[in-house]
Amino acid sequence: MFEIPLQVWLGQITIGLVNGSFYAILSLGLALIFGLLNIINFAHGALYMLGAFGVYLALHKLGVNYWLSLLLVPLVIGAFGAFIERVLLRRLSGLDHLYSLLFTFGLALVLEGIFRDIYGSAGLPYPAPPSLSGLVDLGFMRLPIYRVWIVGVSLIVCVGVWYLIERTKIGAYLRAGTENPRIVQALGIDVPLMVTMVYALGAALAAFAGVLAAPIYQVQPLMGSNILIVTFAVVVIGGLGSTAGAIATGLALGVIEGLAKVIYPEISSTIVFIVMALVLLTRPAGLFGRGA
Q1: CB 240, CB 247: distance < 8 Å
Q2: Cα separation of 271 and 282, whole Å?
Q3: Is 89 exposed, middle or buried (0-12, 13-18, 19+ CB in 10 A)?
Q4: Is the pTM here over 0.85, yes or no?
Q5: Which of 93, 186, 207, 263 has the most CB atoms lying inside 10 A of its own CB?
């Protein structure tokens, strides 16, 4: 292990940050929906897949470029998320949380099945925008510019959402509305609308990650289910409902996963779940979570 060149370690850390950026955005959306709405959203991976297909279809069917799609696709999927919460999930409010879990799981299967019937299971390529093509020389490795872009924009989005929820008046209303909706409604605030906005924001974050992923991973119907399991593990480790925990844990586990490929490659695909088991044994609420 000690004979491995420093360049290899630094390279894996850099690649781990790229993977961790996807974990951070996706787990942030999950943490928002669970922390503020108390919904375990198994449809999150399907919304991520819809974001990737959205940017693919926007280019090939409508001629919309990557940059415009980066803005429009999350808005469209966010609106779809608002429809899901307002028309479907709201009917399950007040029931056992298992009902919403089963509903979102079934919704994910339906969405994946529809796209699999239309486009098949094979991946569809999506080109990176010309302005982000090429390589950047980091000294110890040459990294595609697009991957550097992913890390940078992911950090900006994650920090922005964290600031919105934790440091602004809107975020205070959201947190208060989920903890004591009657008092907040008495102040004249539309709590049901706030609930819809939170779910729409979580869906938009998933779609944003899907747009970023399209030029790296091939666009295919099962891409969401493949990453959703790891994302749930990240949320559990960080602490269910903790936005800061989701961001920090997502980035950290991406780096740990990358280093594991150097130290012991056979364990790299399961290292996240090993960490999750250890955290749950020592701190059941998660690293950044609060006990019930």
Answers
A1: no
A2: 17
A3: buried
A4: yes
A5: 207
Q: List, in order, residues 6 or more apart from 250 with CB less than 8 Å away.
A: 20, 21, 22, 23, 24, 25, 26, 27, 28, 234, 238
The dihedral formed by the CA atoms of 75, 132, 24 and 221, expressed in degrees to the nearest 10: 60
Amino acid identity of residue 106, one-letter, is G
Amino acid at 174: L
Look up residue 65 and give its two tokens: 């470029």
Q: What is the spatial distance between Cα 177 and Cα 273, in angstroms, rounded to a whole number?
A: 33
Residue environment code for 98-108, b if the CB has 16+ CB neighbours within 10 A, otherwise e: eebeebbeebb
**Token output for 62:** 């409508």
Q: Provide the mean pLDDT of the chain.
A: 90
CA distance 112 to 42: 12
pLDDT digits (tens, 9 = 90+) for 236-289: 999 887 899 999 999 999 999 989 988 888 888 899 999 999 999 999 888 887
Protein fold of 6-282: ABC transporter involved in vitamin B12 uptake, BtuC (1.10.3470)
CA distance 195 to 189: 11
Bridge partners of residue 219, in order along the sequence = 124
Which of 194, 188, 154, 184 is CA-nearest to residue 25? Answer: 154
H helical segments located in 168-242 = 169-179, 181-186, 191-213, 223-238
Alpha-carbon span 108 to 215, nearest angstrom: 23
Instruction: Provide, rounded to the nearest whole percent, the portion of the chain with pLDDT above 90.
Output: 61
Helix spans in 84-168 (H): 97-119, 145-167
